[in-house]
Amino acid sequence: MVAQAEFSDDRIDRVFHALAAATRRDILRRTLEREQSVSTLAADYDMSFAAVQKHVAVLEAAELVVKRAEGRERLVRADPDMIARARALLGRYEDLWRSRVDRLDALLAEPEN
């Protein structure tokens, strides 16, 4: 499929799975604004620290965030390049569907013989 040019099916699945949860989308948004420790992220959610770590791990597996160690802390930042690539992938899917709808519109607009 044209829309998958630079992503394997497995990679696409990881990205969409990562973006499927509201908490992960919020973590992504927050780490786009600035790099934050997992502890700082966890303080704002009504869930355990371990649960937030798991959410970060899902985002990291999808390559949407990068985690690095600084002393005892683990700092998380969004990867704007990967987010742009995921956005481009969605754009290709949108183009594919728009072309199909346009073809359907053209067929429906043809006069009957």
From TrEMBL:
GO terms for molecular function: DNA-binding transcription factor activity. Residues 4-98 form the HTH arsR-type domain. InterPro entries: ArsR-like_HTH, HTH_ArsR_DNA-bd_dom, WH-like_DNA-bd_sf, WH_DNA-bd_sf. SUPFAM superfamilies: Winged helix' DNA-binding domain. This is ArsR family transcriptional regulator. The lineage of its organism: Bacteria, Bacillati, Actinomycetota, Actinomycetes, Micrococcales.
